[in-house]
Amino acid sequence: xxxxxxxxxxxxGPAAIDEGWRAPLDTVDDARASAQEYRDVDEERILVLGxxxxxxxxxxxxxxxxxxxxFRIRDGKVVRLIFYWDRGRAFADLGLAPxxxxx
Length: 103
What we know:
The chain is an alpha+beta fold. The protein has a single domain, classed as Nuclear Transport Factor 2, Chain: A, CATH 3.10.450. Helices cover 19% and strands 45% of the residues. It is built from two helices and four strands, in the order αββββα. It has helices spanning 14-25, 87-94; strands at 28-40, 45-56, 62-74, 77-84.
């Protein structure tokens, strides 16, 4: 089982990003995110491979989702952040080889 599903749309500012995250996380208890690997894509972009884990609220079943987040950084600040609910999509969009642990 995986988390709620993809978030679509654009969010500007920390409060909007927080609000966008709430909907899919409302379906799980004890949601925990962990970074597993960092990849430099180019001078401005870093791909962070991670995992979300928790328990489904309705059944208590464990849930896990391997994901990726792409950070664009300029002058030491994040200027764009793309959340990928599917690592394979991130690798395809960026033209990168999948990680050795599986996507």
